[in-house]
Amino acid sequence: MAGEMSFTRVLIANRGEIARRIQRGCRKLGLESVAVFSDADRDAPFVAEADHAVCIGGAAPSDSYLNVEAILEAARATGAGAVHPGYGFLSENAGFAAAVEAAGLVFIGPEPDAIARMGSKIEAKAAAEAAGVPVLPGYRGEDQSDARLLQEAEALGTPFLVKASAGGGGRGMRLVSDLGDAPEAIASARAEAQSAFGDPAVFLERYAPRARHVEVQVLGDTHGTVLHLGDRDCSLQRNHQKLIEEAPAADLPEAVRDRMRAAAVRLAQAIGYRSAGTVEYLYDPGRGEYYFLEMNTRLQVEHPVTEAITGIDLVEWQLRIARGEPLALTQGDVQFDGHAIEIRIAAENPAENFHPETGEITLWAPPADVRLDTGVECGSVVGHHYDSMIAKLIVHAPDRTGAIRRAITAIDAFAVGGVGLNLAYQRALLAHPDFAAFRHHTSYLPEMFPGGWTESSADHRDMAFAAMALHLRLVPAGASPWESLGSWRLTAPARQSGAAFYWDTTKDEPIRMYGSGSGLTAIQPDGQTITVESAALTGCRLSGRIDGVPFSRIAYVVRAPSHWRVHLQTPAGMTATDLRTLEDQHLQRATGGSGVADLLSAPMPGAVAEVRVALGDRVKAGDTLVVLEAMKLLQSLPAPVAGVVTEIYCAPGDTVAGHAPLIKLDPEENT
């Protein structure tokens, strides 16, 4: 692409928060946006906020967001002159970029050749070496025979990694610590690479066990200018997926930082790179050395932290560069201010092996005064078809300590209902002393939580506050309880006014509530008592005085199908407590609860990947009966009891709803 390119309408070939982010960039430059969406995203915010929107297929990504012809047809139908791929999906697909340009449209990203070259890890490392960028020792040859790979593995020595040439996100990667395991590691890495990327090629690379992940943001125009916009650290990862990103990279020798930045610019210049891109490195603090890892030829998920410390709008410059504009700044113009942290917010339950969460968001109350890039709002439905990340929280402060403190404060004020999120887990990472001291690396999570992470439960005072918030929601201060509470208001023991009872859904004994807003007393099942004077629930804030000392907590009270959920700000973060009234408790007992011991049900919506049993099979409790795919993850669903399979309600390929019956068992005691 050379010279000025004219377009006034941009099709965004993506969804969720990144689609909304690109829409903001378009509005800033007076450009119209076109959203393409799947059937599952018909009611999503990014669709409603676009200037034009076109449905391009079914919920499965292959039917919509990966459907090249449907996307190009949408561009033609709406008169879009350019296509922005966002990140994920087709963003690093050289064939897609070439198809966009062949259709006479502008691809908002690098040249297809640059995408293809950097998309091959083997070619990318060769290009890095040619540009004088350090790479890890290893084997990246064309001979992919078992004999050659095993020969090179022996020469390299352990530990080493087998990695897919076309890989990413940890797929097609195997760690080998014993040479005897090398044949199986190579075979399984090849198989996964072929399945995930359509390319079985692998390479070998020395493993740096305590390395950090440091990356450099680059920006190149079509006139030969390439700048770096500083560096980021993304070392806190789970299964090679980033959790928390920050800029600039902390605890990095300035000489090393300067060399990393200069090397990133050299590589981008060597391949004629245009648009925004990221050069990623492994940094070995023990050796004081860095090594080229890969180049991401797209906008990164973590680009907001770079924007925060530089004040440079990366999406705006992607659009300007795509129009042929030269960069209007020099390297000396790029200044760095303070420290920024981004927290990836995902719909998952970290306490249950990061089990994906799906459902309707019934409460969405993010903190004020911080940047939140999100694809959802109250009423949005989080389904199983796409990645679990639904938002990113970005904070900026004068220094790293202040940024950590501000991030924790923001999480503590974030209330969400209907769908579980990983906020409490992210808060635990931010508050961990090893994170503050920067002792972590890419494989450090097991050391941070050796016994695994568990979410802290509400203490007796927080439980009392939650019950008070519910009580005040149902009985506004000053109202007569007899007028307001109906059938579940009971007469209390002698010498006490009427009492209300609230059950924590995990306990058998209730919390008893006496008095009114002027003096409200909660008595826990264990007898602990707390009295709040002038108790009030005003909007989303619970306030009052305890022993004359005022307090104020954020509190949201939301109705669930069989109980109430109270989201309460506590010293340990935002908690969610499920409470039942006496009426709820009676209804629960009358229906016998929701558990069915001999029936395996889907814990969430998903696609059935495998059914591992047949009618008449005898199984043990805990045996895997069904494998369900949801949010790109495979969930093994175990038998709830031992017994014989009597009914199978699903087959591989079926899409099932949450709580749908899957397998019926005749329990062992009956047989």
UniProtKB/TrEMBL annotation:
UniProt domain Lipoyl-binding: residue ranges: 591-666
Keyword annotations: ATP-binding, Biotin, Ligase, Nucleotide-binding
Stored SMART domains: Biotin_carb_C
Gene3D superfamilies given in the database record: 2.40.50.100, ATP-grasp fold, B domain (3.30.470.20)
Pfam families, per database record: Biotin_carb_C, Biotin_carb_N, Biotin_lipoyl, CPSase_L_D2
Residue ranges of every copy of the Biotin carboxylation domain listed in the record: 6-450
Record's keyword annotation contains rRNA processing: no
Start and end residues of each ATP-grasp domain: 125-323
Cofactor (UniProt): biotin
UniProt xrefs under CDD domains: biotinyl_domain (cd06850)
InterPro entries assigned to the protein according to its UniProt record, in alphabetical order: ATP-grasp (IPR011761), BC-like_N (IPR005481), Biotin_BS (IPR001882), Biotin_carboxylase_complex (IPR050856), Biotin_carboxylation_dom (IPR011764), Biotin_COase_C (IPR005482), Biotin_lipoyl (IPR000089), CPAse_ATP-bd (IPR005479)
MF terms in GO: ATP binding; ligase activity; metal ion binding
Name the record gives this protein: Acetyl-CoA carboxylase subunit alpha
Organism name: Pseudooceanicola atlanticus
